[in-house]
Amino acid sequence: METIRKADIYQKKRARNLVLHLHPIKLRKETIRFQLTFGLGGMSALLFLLQVFTGILLRFSYVASPAEAYDSILAIENDIFFGQFVRNIHHWSGILFVIITFLHLIRTFYTGAFYYKRRWNWIIGICLMILVVFSNFTGYLLPWDQLAFWAITVSTSMLQYVPLAGNWLVEFVRGGVDVNASTLLIFYNFHTAILPITIVILMVFHFWRVRKAGGVVVSENSSNEMAPSDPDLVLKELVTGIVLLAFIFLLSVFFNAPLLERADPAFSPNPAKAPWYFMGIQELLMHFHPFVSAILIPLLFVIGLIWLPFLKFDRQYEGIWFFNEKGKKLAVLATIVSFFIVTIAILISEFLINFEGWLPSLPLIISSGLIPLFLVATFLFILMYFIKKQYRTDTSELILFLMTFIIVAYVVFSIVAIFFRGPGMQLMWPWNT
Ligand code: HEM
Ligand code: HEM
């Protein structure tokens, strides 16, 4: 009788409260702790909503044709009430969306929330991450200024290094040999319809899986104390959301989204740089054959991420940041080692190594592709062996070390390419670029 009454109250409360369709009525107190998740998943969801809202507003004035796109952006900025502000919000939150979603990926990794019941949600998450990056990428072309045109030209040209189908793929993505009117239309359709709809579908699935796993991850030793989601969790979400919105609005009041001169297919800026999140790959291109840097390494990384939840993982690390005390030390060590090794490797590769010149009889894919890749892989293997022996790590701790090493390496590559590469992609100080 008592259970029926409880269920009845629950149903009534749920029917009246939209929020309780998202959250259970009560959850473990530990899951509400801000420092466990930093609210990053919720922030990603809010940023998506903001993108859809501002994106639809922009669509009222934006025209997706090379002859009119740039002028329509000028009209949004100059003739439309709050047009510049809306464009700025879309621009800054588009960047934040990529960063926050990536931080959310990092948080789920470092709290061991990618294993067992959360395995499939991790994989859905990887798909979401790729979709978010491509949402930003397809939006990048739309202003049709020099920045947009050449960034997309540089990035799409990397596809030509896919074996056998490369040139076909470039033409397929661009809808022609060069970036042209068809490319703009293709990107516009993906940007404003196909990608957002796919994100919505996966996001619904993603949220459902969080509920299926019994909420966010917690350590097995944490207390079983329960708390009502409304107001305990809802209030925290509200405050996080308001702070995030306030930050974006302030950014958008003071800093305008960039707009260079109208796109000129006949005049390429020097250097022509890819969007910032692909700059790490552009830096890799300076050191490896394009097949290795633009196709093989990113592919191996994504396969590694998808494979991750199927490797051996110690469940006692779930819900604990960096797994344990040793994990924290390993993360710091990996950060320092990666920073110095990658910086030194970039300098050595730039000024001392020239496999192409030393081995002219070999095909480029071997001399400047597979040989340097083999050297890097051997180095990583020895490093991991040393860490395993020296710190007596188990598989989980070793993966934590490797993941940290790779993330820091990508950040260093990106910083070098964004700030330290000038005309001809030569290395130089930022104030000379
Ligand atoms: C899914 C997340 C989205 C991301 C990450 C994103 C990102 C971007 C970016 C980076 C730009 C270039 C803005 C600039 O810097 O100049 C852009 C432009 C644009 N986006 Fe989105 N967007 C998203 C969703 C949407 C949606 C759902 C719509 C419409 C339904 C939309 C409509 C537009 C339009 C019309 C432009 C061209 C106007 C301009 O460049 O200012 N976007 N988007
Ligand atoms: C559009 C992008 C995304 C949105 C809106 C989103 C949203 C969320 C939310 C709201 C949660 C629960 C609360 C929290 O952890 O903050 C969550 C959990 C989770 N997300 Fe995401 N997420 C996105 C992308 C990703 C990515 C890129 C990954 C990783 C590859 C990922 C993996 C996970 C996992 C494994 C959980 C369960 C965490 C746990 O149980 O502690 N998500 N996501």
Give the biggest beta sheet: 2 strands, antiparallel
Reading the helices and strands in chain order gives HHEHHHHHHHHHEHHHHHHH
Class of secondary structure makeup? mainly alpha
Instruction: Give, in spatial order, the strands making up the sheet with the most strands.
Output: 1-2
Q: In CATH terms, what is the architecture of the largest domain? A: Up-down Bundle
Overall pLDDT confidence: 94
Count up the domains. 2
Can you tell me the CATH class of the largest domain? Mainly Alpha
CATH homologous superfamily caption of the largest domain: Cytochrome Bc1 Complex, Chain C
Cα-based radius of gyration, to the nearest Å: 24 Å
- Dominant shape: globular
Strand segment tally:
2
Query: What compounds sit in this structure?
Result: protoporphyrin IX containing FE
Strand content: under 5%
Helical residue percent band: 55-70%
Number of helices: 18
CATH fold assignment of the largest domain: Cytochrome Bc1 Complex, Chain C
- The parts where pLDDT drops under 50 for at least 5 residues are none
| Cα-to-Cα separation, first versus last residue | 76 Å
